[in-house]
Specification:
This protein folds into two domains: 223 residues, D-Maltodextrin-Binding Protein, domain 2; 93 residues, D-Maltodextrin-Binding Protein, domain 2. It is built from 15 helices and 14 strands. 46% of the residues are buried. Strand 12 and strand 13 form a beta hairpin. Helix 7 runs parallel beside helix 8 and helix 13 packs antiparallel against helix 15. It has 350 residues and is an alpha/beta fold. The protein is globular and about 55 Å long. The strands form two sheets. Strands 1, 2, 3, 4, 10, 11, 12, 13 and 14 form a nine-stranded mixed beta sheet that branches. Keywords: Kinase, Signal, Transferase. It is found in: Periplasm. This is Lipid kinase. GO terms for molecular function: kinase activity. Belongs to the bacterial solute-binding protein SsuA/TauA family.
Length: 350
Amino acid sequence: MASAVAIAAALLTGAVGAAEAKTYKFGYNIYVGFMPYGWMAQNGILEKWAKKYGVDIEVIQVNDYVGGINQFTAGELDGMAVASMDGLTIPAASGVDTTIMLAGDFSNGNDGILSKKVSDIKSLKGETIHLFELTVSHYLLSRALELNGMSLRDVKTVNITDADIAPAYLGSDELVHAVAWNPMLLQMETKVEGSKRIFDSASTPEEIVDVMLMHTKTVEEHPEVAKAFVGAWYETMQIMSKGGFVGEAMIADLADASGGTVPEYKAQLDSTKMYYDPAEALDLMNSKRHQKTWDFVRTFSFDVGLFGEAATSADFIGIEFPDGTVLGDKDNIQLRINSSFTEMAVKGEL
């Protein structure tokens, strides 16, 4: 009898252990700065770091960017690669306490405004502009207008998805002005005779930053997951940045995975500032200029209604920075910039 009880207890303990074992799922979609996530998973780097920290991590390519963010918001993904603004306006604005634990790159010309008719932003006054509304394209247009003494009230915007904007711009004479991101931006710019890039994100450096989100609860309860992921990322960045046969082979893999050619992928990289060195990412995450950018982002987000009907000001959501500064409501912090794992990478402590 005692033996049977012991066996049952052992089986129960094993079952509980198996139930507790969790695979942490991180999502990304096809974008120049996100492709290394898939590569580091497919080439054993992530697995190596995950084993070091005793965790199981899976990286999943999602076909629908917003759908992936919604999966993260619903708890179906533990991490999601996004443009930083989208972390604020979707999960954080939905009441999901969200942490940015890695800054991968910023758009340095990857997002732009094209026109078949005019050659400067001020000439857009009274014009109709097609873009994917309530995304970074909308934010970029807002900033371009603001920097030229104008506002969104000076133009009319028409919503069009990222999947439809390139074919529409290429195929319709009625679509004259558009805002898009790569690879669509390059296609639209180069394939339409007379198309001019009149503004791009190189004029707003470090404002459209691509980051990895995690649920704050997971970061706090299982920091080893973030450590493994960040460690794998910076090992991958070393390979990608060093050139030579290995680096070029990686670039070829990334280009193929993104559905393009090596020259096309490199053209997109040229307008993307990758944070190959964790010290550069740490400098951004800890900086006052980053806090200023978030002030721009939250103001835009509130102005276009992305915080929902309950929000009465841009202060509705609290954004916490590494130095303890909070923009917005300190009693409703839903977005946190956590630079501790990047700092560990800088110090060689991962």
